[in-house]
Amino acid sequence: MNVLGISGSPRKDGNTEILIREALEGARSKGAEVEMIVLSDKDIKGCRAHPTCGQGGKCLIDDDMQPIYPKLMEADAIIIGTPVYFGGMTGQTKTFLDRTYLLSKLGRKLEGKVGGVIAVGGRAGHEFTSACIMDYMTLQGMVLPSGAFAHSFVRDLGAAKTDEKSMKAARALGERVAATAMKLRS
Ligand SMILES: Cc1cc2nc3c(=O)[nH]c(=O)nc-3n(C[C@H](O)[C@H](O)[C@H](O)COP(=O)(O)O)c2cc1C
To answer: What is the pTM of this model?
Structure first.
């Protein structure tokens, strides 16, 4: 059982990465194999809504999204984490989500996978941010466990590590997501 974590922060070793890693530890504790993808390491261009999207089985944009598609298709569960930027997800996260349009065109390849969301910000906008990503997940046919999100209220680089509430919430999310994926598989 594979759980894939996606960090949508442009900040290396930031709070989103810390919390995704903790969520994946929670998933691992339930028996999952885990992997994290850090979008700031990647060159991912915006969707161009090409009229032949899906034909030929691949996205026409040749960039770092290409090796991510098979990982998404193989995953049993996907946890997406983003900082809150001006009340919403980061541009990096949205660009990534838009590029998964290919997977719906190829026959709803994310359908039935379990989803989880982490939103981290200093003050406000977490609800809207996680709601947008959960909406994306349901549009892709993904399954959300009860309590599909974790919200963290930290701002400074690395502050999540010492924020017990945030770390606990992230780990519990990873556990719930993995447990739900296992139930669905059995
Ligand atoms: C451009 C920008 C916009 C931001 N907007 C918000 C916001 O609307 N609400 C909020 O709570 N925090 C906001 N923040 C703070 C970040 O969400 C916060 O520092 C977060 O912990 C960053 O996560 P990271 O360490 O994974 O990059 C903003 C930060 C930046 C750089």
So the answer is: 0.98
